[in-house]
Amino acid sequence: MTREEILTGLYEQTLVGNGPEVLSLTEQGLGMGMEPSTLLFDALIPSLEEVGARFERGDFFVPEMLIAGRAMAGAMERLRPLLADTGVETIGKFLMGTVKGDVHDIGKNLVNIMLEGAGFEVIDLGVQVAPEKFVSAIEEHQPDIVGFSAFLTTTMPMFKANINALEKAGLRDQVIVMVGGAPVTQEYADAVGADGYAADASATVKRAKDLLAGKRALVGAGA
Amino acid sequence: MTEPVALRQTILRSATKQVTIGHEHPFCIIGERINPTGRKIFQEALRAGDLSLIEKDVAAQVAGGADVLDVNMGVPLTDEAELLENAIRLVQSLTDLPICIDSSVVEALEAGLAAYQGRALVNSVTAEDERLAAILPLVKKYDAAVVALPNDHDEIPMESGKRIELVGKIVRVATEEYGISIDDIVIDPLAMPIGADSSVGATALETIREIKARWGLNMTCGASNVSFGMPGRHAINAAWLPLAMGAGMTSAIMDARTPAVVESVRAADLLLGHDEWGGTWIRMHRAKVAAAAAAEAAAAEAAAAATPAP
Predict the structure, then answer these.
(1) pLDDT higher for A56 or B181?
(2) Taking every annotated instance into account, which residue ranges of this chain make up the domain B12-binding (chain A) (predicted)?
C-alpha cells in the first residue's frame, strides 16, 4: 500500500465508520513510518469534517455520525501519545460534560465528534457532572474551553451553579465557558454569564473557534 | 410458576370525562404538543402572558384523536408555576379530556394540581430519593396518578435488570411509604433512541414484558424518542408502538396530529382485541372518508367559483 492509499483508505473508512479498518490502516501507516500528524490532519480530521457537513445537510444520520466518531476515537487512542511525544498541538482543548441532574448525552456526543473533526482535543466527563468535578477537571486538564450541556429546563440552572463554582475556585478567567442543549437559548446563556452559546453541533465548532481566536488575540495584545 | 398478577387500571378524570388506562383497554394516546420547548414564538408569547397559541394546539390534538392531553409550560426564566396553573385552567375550559401535568419543577406541579379539576396524571418522578420524597406527597394529596421513570442518579440504566430493580423501588416507596395505589403508578420503561444504540429497542421490550409480568403496571413512553436522529421517523414510531403494545405498553405521550402513527395504534388495538367488532376502527375510517369528501366538495366549489359564467 502506498502512503496515498493509506490516507485515502483512512478517510473513506472513517467516513463509513469502519473502526477496525481505521485502526488497522493507522497501524499500517505508522509501520510505514508515516507521521502521526499526517494521519490525523490529512485523513482523519478531513473525514470527520465531511461527516459533520453531511449531517448538517441532512444526508447523514445520527448512527452514521456516531460510528464515524467512534472509528476516529479508536485511531486517536493510538495516535494521541505519539502526537504528544512529537509536540503536535491541537487547535485547542475542550472539556465537555452534561450537567448534574441530567443524563442526556446524544447531543453532547455529536458535538464532541464535530469538535474532534475540527481538530480540537475533547475531554468528555460524561453525564451528571457535578460542579466540583468540572472544577477539578479544569485544574487537571487546563482546557481552553469548558462546555456545559443540559437537555432539560430544570437542569439548565446548573450552568449558573457551575460558573459560580469556577469563580469560587478562581478559574473563571482562565477558561472560556460555552453552554448548549435543546432548551438553551442565547438569552439564557447571557443571563447565566456564559461566554458562548450555539444552537447545534456545527455552530458550536464555529463559535468555539471564534471565541478561542478572540481570547488568543486578547492574550497576545495584553502581553 | 407463580400466579399471574392483577392487571392494573389507571383512572384519569376531568370534571366531566373519565379515561381508563389499562391492559384490557384501548391504548391511551396522550397528546403531547402543548409544550413550548424548542418553539421560540410560543415561548415569547407565553412570557408576555399570551396563552392563545395553546388553543390551536389543543384543537389539533383533540381532532387527531388524543385521549388525554400533556400540558408542559417549561419556559426558561419565567414563573413556571403561574404559567402552568393558567394553562391548566385554559385547557380545561377548551376540552373535557383529562390532563397529564408535565413539569420537573415541584412548585409548578403543585400549582397545576391545585388548579386542576378531576384526577390528573403527573409527569413525572424518577427513582431518585429526593424526587420521590418531593413529588409523591403531591400525588397523594391531590389524588392523582403518576408517571415514574426507573432511572436514578447515575446514567440511565441500559440493561433491563437494573430498570426492573428501580421499578421495584418506586412501587415499594409509592405504595408503602406514601399510600399511593399501585393502579396509579404508570411506568415509563425508557425507550431510548435506536439511532444511538441498536440494542435499545430489544431492551425496552424486555423491560415492558417483565414489568407487566411482575406487577401488571400500566406503562407509557415518549413515542417519538425511539426515532430521534433517524430518517422516516413516523414509520419508525408507527412500528414501535404496536411492538410495545404487544409487550404490554398501555399508553404513549405522542403527537396526535400524525395520522400514520395514530392509525398504527388503533390498528394494533383492533388486533389485540381491544376494539370490539372494530367499532373505533370503522368509525375512524368513516370520519376519514367524510373528511376527504368534504375536502373534495370544497375544492370543486372553489373551482366552480373561479370559473367565469358562460
Answers:
(1) B181
(2) 91-222
Tens digit of each residue's pLDDT (9 = 90 or more) over A119-170: 899 999 999 999 999 999 999 999 999 999 998 888 899 999 999 999 999 9
Domain boundary among A43, A70, A88: A88
* Chain A residues close to B38, C-beta within 8 Å: 182-183
Pair A164, A119 in one domain = yes
| Cβ density class A9-37: b for 16+ within 10 Å, e for less | bbbebbbebbbebbbebbeebbeeebebe
In this structure, the answer to whether residues A136 and A171 fall within a common structural domain is: yes
Looking at the fold, whether A82 and A98 belong to one and the same domain comes out as no
Supply the CATH number for residue A125's domain.
3.40.50.280
Residues A181 and A210 in one domain: yes
Give the model confidence (pLDDT) of B206-263 as tens digits.
999 999 999 999 999 999 999 999 999 999 999 999 999 999 999 999 999 999 999 9
- Residues A43, A71 share a domain: yes
Given A54, A88, A122, the domain boundary residue is: A88
Torsion of CA B89, B92, B98, B99, to 10 degrees: -40
| Tens digit of each residue's pLDDT (9 = 90 or more) over B56-108 | 999 999 999 999 999 999 887 789 999 999 999 999 999 999 999 999 899 99
Chain A residue with Cα closest to B230: A61
Residue B182 DSSP class:
G
**Nearest-Cα residue of chain A relative to residue B126:** A101
Nearest to A112 by CA among A130, A86, A94, A99: A94
- Whether the CB of B84 is below 8 Å from some CB of chain A: the reply is no
Residue among B37, B152, B192, B200 with most chain A CBs within 10 A, to mutate: B37
By a Cβ cutoff of 8 Å, what residues of chain A touch chain B?
Answer: 61-63, 65-66, 103, 105-106, 109, 126-128, 152-154, 156, 182-185, 187-188, 191
Domain that holds residue A13: 1-88
Closest partner residue to A154 among B105, B198, B231, by Cβ?
B105
Check if B115 contacts A (Cβ < 8 Å).
no
Higher-confidence position of B307 and A116: A116
Quick one: pLDDT at residue A167?
A: 96
In this structure, the dihedral spanned by the alpha carbons of residues B154, B140, B168 and B217, taken in order and rounded to 10 degrees, is -120
Q: How many structural domains are present in chain A?
A: 2
Closest to A156 (Cβ–Cβ): which among B76, B193, B230? Answer: B76
